[in-house]
Structure formats: C-alpha cells, structure tokens
Amino acid sequence: MKFHIHTYGCQMNVRDSEAVEALLIAEGHEKASNEEEAQLVIVNSCTVRQKAEDKALGKAGNLIADGKITGVMGCAVKRLGADIFRRLPALHFAVGPRMFSRIPDIVERITSVPAAVMPRRILEVGENEIPKGLGAHPSAVCTGTFSDVHSFVTVMIGCDNRCSYCIVPDVRGHEWCRPFDEIVSEVKSLAERGVKEVCLLGQSVLRYNDSGKTFPDLLRALQEIDGLLRIRFTSAHPSGCTDELLSAYRDCPKVCRHLHLPVQSGSNRILSEMGRRYTREEYLKAVAKMRAFDPQFAVTTDVIVGYPGESEEDFEMTRSLMDEALFDNSFIFKYSPRPGTKSSLMEDDVSKEEKERRNQVLLSDQERRGIELNSRLINSVRRVLVEGPSKRKSERWSGRDSGNRIVVFEPCEGISVGSEVDVKILEAHAQVLVGEIV
Ligand code: SAH
Ligand code: SF4
C-alpha cells in the first residue's frame, strides 16, 4: 500500500515519522511520492500549543473527507485518548508517541478486510512503554542509494522535569535513556551508509546517563566513528554546561560549536514559577562559559511570551537577557495553556494582542542581533558541510557551519553533497551568510 506521513511539531516527531516509514517499508508498503498518490496517510501530531494540535487534527479531518485511510500518531493522541474519536469519528486509528511500532500491525488489520467493513477508531495510547523500533531508519530498508547528509538519532525519550507550562511529560511519559551501545552502533551504521552529521535528540540530553555512562562519554565514543563529520544535539539545559562537557568539546572536534539552550524567560520571578531550576545569572554564566571556550560558539534559544502574570518589566528582562546572551537565533512562542499542567491553573491574563506585540518585538530584536552577529563573520572563513542547491537560487549551493549558521556559496561546480568546503564570508543577513569558496 502507498503511504504518506505528514509531520507536525518537533524533531522528535520527525524522527518518529522516519522510524514508522522504515517499519512500514519493511512490511512491504511503499512510500508515495506525494500525499495525493497515497492510499494511507498518517498525521504525526503535536500538542505543545493548542494551535499545533488544532492544525494536526484539522489536517486529519480533511484526509478522512478525501477518502484516505487515515491515522493520527504522536502527542495529541496521548493527550486526547479516546476523545480524539469525538472530534474525528471516522478516523481509522490513533497511536500514542510511545506506541508507534504498532502501526504496521494496525495497518494490516485495517487493510486485510474489504473497505466496507474496515475497522475504524482503533486506539493504542500506552503509558511508559519503551518504544520498539527507535532505531528503525529508512536508509536501512530503502533500495538504491541513500543520500541524506544528516540524520536524527534518539538518545532519550520522555521528560521528568515538569516545567509548569509544559505538556511534554504528560504525553511523552517518563524520561528514559537509550542504551549507550545501541546508540553508538546506530550512528556507526548511519555513517557506513553515508550520513555525515547526526543530531542527538532528547528533551534534556545533557542529563543522559546509562549505568554511569554520561553524555560527554557518548560524545567521545561518537567522535571515534569513521566517516562521521559532525555531531549535534538538542535540547540542552544550563546545568549541563559543566567542565566535563567543555572537556568533551575540547577533545572532540566533530562536536559542533552550537548549543540550543532554551531560556524561556529572562525574569527570575517567572523562571522560578516555571520551575526551570536556574536563574537569569546562572543562565548567562553558562553562555559566557561556552563563549570563553570559543568566541564564535553559537547559542540559540526558545522563549515564551505572555506567561501568566508576565508584566512589562518581566518582558523587558527577557529582552535584555536576549541582548546580553547575544543569541544567534531564537524561537519565540506565545504562551498557550495546556490542560493538566501547573500553569493552566493560573489565569491566562496576558491578552492575545499583547502576546503578539511581545512576539513581534522579540522577532525584530533578533533580526537586528542576527545581522550584527553575522556581520562580525564577514571576511572570516567558515568550514561548511554541503547540503545541496540553495532554496532561493539554485545556481548557489548551501550548507551549514559548525554553529548551525546557514551559508550560501558559489562556485558550486565539482562540489558534492556531504563534502566539507571552506567559504569566505562576504555578506551577512540575519539568518544567512553568503560567501565564496576559497
Ligand atoms: N525540552 C525542551 C523543550 C521542548 S518543548 C526544553 O526544555 O528545553 C519546545 C518549546 O516549546 C519549549 O522550549 C517552549 O519554549 C515551548 N513551549 C512549551 N510549552 C509551551 C506552552 N504551553 N506555550 C507556549 N510555548 C510552549
Ligand atoms: Fe517540557 Fe521542561 Fe521537559 Fe522541556 S524540560 S520537555 S520544557 S517539561
């Protein structure tokens, strides 16, 4: 059967969708070249904000109306449970984020009977199961050559942090670290199949611990893998920016000089209410530590605007922290109350308009900061991992430097995807550097 997976949300969802793709291909199903051509469409849903959930469920509704065999997987399924069928009564199946390995069996159950009697509303939610198939990867089951330069690798699932606003622990369950050796052998086999860069995924990866083997130990083991050029990871927490981490950076040149270090707020009062377990000062100290190690170390972040009770003064603290931290990039989210979380008991008292205004202010601050930071790189030479033709102008190619900055360059004759080139930077924009190969 031809299938298509439509993915919303974070990188974990992207990775889970890939695993489902691999599991379905292994059972003889075929990836459709687009959604129209597919008979079976699976929506991988997000519920971190209400808008994300609504989009995913809206999409599933349209697919059912189009006559597709439709399933929803991911975080919204765990939040809603059987209620998802109130919203989508003709949905064929719904599978929670830790149960995706059941999808091939469910598809078999549905498609082995005539369309008129096809079962609908099959639900597999689960609680804290360890998902099977975490390492399933399309490159292992696809025929022909596999040409992805980059691959996500799950190292941790779930979360035990319980930040006041966040639904992730409820939907993705308790934190669990994948066995060390399993991760190392997955990365080895990806490198053998031509992957040059891996991004290790977990809600708080610096907490990784498998019977005493820590995250810095994992970085050291991956550094040794032949053919692999770069190692990234996300997300990090300032408490993990230890001397041991820095010493792993020092010893492992493949580990990219970039941290995604979500700050959420610059106000100590809000940080404490959020249960983030660091102060503004501790956060800035962690950033300074990384930049003392390498002045071009890139730091990116997530920020929430309009958390309950966020005053103008709190917001200005966030603005000033963002300038002090000199973030290379930031992702701004408007607070959305999530049922069952601690903060959902507080009044969502910052108006929609004010959230939007604060969002715009932070976006334009980031634009200015991005240009300023990137301008400092003009005339420097950045080592770029080539990804392919640039999206805007196909006569130029693009790739990323170690700090995850997008670099567009010319000339591109004779350059191959997955190789590394040195590019002299000639132009700087907020999100992109432009240069020429030296
Ligand atoms: N584990 C990561 C974050 C995962 S959720 C970490 O702690 O760093 C991704 C981002 O979504 C968060 O960093 C936060 O900025 C945002 N987010 C989470 N819950 C939210 C909510 N209720 N409203 C708005 N944004 C939210
Ligand atoms: Fe959510 Fe906090 Fe866990 Fe991140 S660390 S997933 S924000 S509870």
Folded structure, characterized:
The model has no long low-confidence stretch (mean pLDDT 96). Strand 1, helix 1 and strand 2 form a beta-alpha-beta unit. The protein is an alpha/beta fold. The chain folds into three domains: 2-124, Methylthiotransferase, N-terminal domain (Rossmann fold), CATH 3.40.50.12160; 138-375, tm_1862 like domain (pyruvate-formate lyase- activating enzyme), CATH 3.80.30.20; 381-437, Nucleic acid-binding proteins (OB fold (Dihydrolipoamide Acetyltransferase, E2P), Beta Barrel). Helix 13 (312-325) packs parallel to helix 14. Strands 2-1-3-4-5-6 form a six-stranded parallel beta sheet, sandwiched between helices. The protein has helices at 11-26, 50-65, 75-80, 84-87, 103-111, 138-141, 168-172, 180-192, 215-223, 243-251, 268-274, 280-293, 312-325, 352-375, and strands at residues 2-7, 30-31, 40-45, 69-74, 93-95, 122-124, 150-154, 156-157, 176-177, 197-201, 209-210, 213-214, 230-234, 258-260, 298-305, 329-334, 381-389, 397-400, 406-410, 420-428, 432-437. The structure holds S-adenosyl-L-homocysteine and iron/sulfur cluster (SF4). Iron/sulfur cluster binds at residues 159, 161-163, 166, 168-169, 203-204.
Residue runs with pLDDT of under 50 for 5 or more positions: none
Give the % helix.
Answer: 25-40%
Shape verdict: globular
Mean model confidence by pLDDT:
96
> Structural class per helix/strand content?
alpha/beta
Distance between the termini: 48 Å
Q: Kindly identify the CATH topology of the largest domain.
A: pyruvate-formate lyase- activating enzyme
Give the domain tally: 3
How many whole angstroms does the radius of gyration measure? 22 Å
Largest sheet: 6 strands, parallel
Name the bound molecules.
Answer: S-adenosyl-L-homocysteine, iron/sulfur cluster
CATH architecture of the largest domain: Alpha-Beta Horseshoe
Strand content: 15-25%
Q: In which order are the strands of the major sheet placed?
A: 2-1-3-4-5-6
How many β-strands, per DSSP? 21
Report the CATH superfamily of the largest domain.
tm_1862 like domain
State the helix count. Answer: 14
- Reading off the top of the CATH hierarchy, the class of the largest domain is best stated as Alpha Beta
